[in-house]
Amino acid sequence: xxxxxxxxxxxxxxxxxxxxxxxxxxxxxxxxxxxxxxxxxxxxxxxxxxxxxxxxxxxxxxxxxxxxxxxxxxxxxxxxxxxxxxxxxxxxxxxxxxxxxxxxxxxxxxxxxxxxxxxxxxx
Length: 123
Description:
Elements: H1 8-13, H2 34-50, H3 60-71, H4 82-91, H5 101-113
Helix pairs in contact: 2-5
C-alpha cells in the first residue's frame, strides 16, 4: 500500500481536523464474532433510546458533518455523512447485517461515538 494522500487544502479549510489510520495485518476477518455482534446490537439499542429522526440533524456530532459537507459545496440533505446514514437506518428499525468482523466493529464504534469510521482491505 502506498502512503495516505490528503490534500493539504483540507487542513487549511478545517484546521482542527484529525485523521487516524490503523493498519492491521494477519487478521482473520472471516465469520461472525458473537461479542462484536452483542456490542453492535447494544449500540443500536442505545441509538434508538437516545436519538430520534426528528432531532438527528441538530445533534452536535451529526451537525458538524453536515456543516463540513456544506463547506465542501455538497447539500447535506442529498449527501449525508456515513454516520448520519447509519444512524438513520438504525432509527428506522434496521438491524445492521453482518458483513465481516471489521465492518461490524467499525459500525459499532461509529454508532457508539457518532463518528464516521471506515476501512479498506489492503489486498
